Amino acid sequence: MTIAERLKQEGHHNGLQQGLQQGLEQGVQKGTQEEALRIARMMLENGIDRDLVRLITGLLPDDVTE
């Protein structure tokens, strides 16, 4: 294997690793956001004040709607 081929192979491997890591991080972030929204909906349905829901969940005002 030539140096160029080896570098190309290593670059491909590194690119795949970075892509997998980014995908995993995005998936975890999306799951966390969805869970916060689920909790916020439940809190609002049980009469908890919208400002308190935002404070506890860390959601943005536009995310917390009734």
Task: Give keywords.
66 residues; mainly alpha; rod-shaped; Rpn family recombination-promoting nuclease/putative transposase
Description:
This protein is mostly helical and 66 residues long. The chain has one domain (3-57). The protein contains two helices and no strands. α1 (3-45) packs antiparallel against α2. The model has no long low-confidence stretch (mean pLDDT 92). GO terms for molecular function: double-stranded DNA endonuclease activity. Residues 1-13 have a biased composition (Basic and acidic residues). Residues 14-28 have a biased composition (Low complexity). This is Rpn family recombination-promoting nuclease/putative transposase. InterPro entries: Rpn/YhgA-like_nuclease (IPR051699).
Give the topology.
Blueprint: H1 3-45, H2 50-57
Helix pairs in contact: 1-2
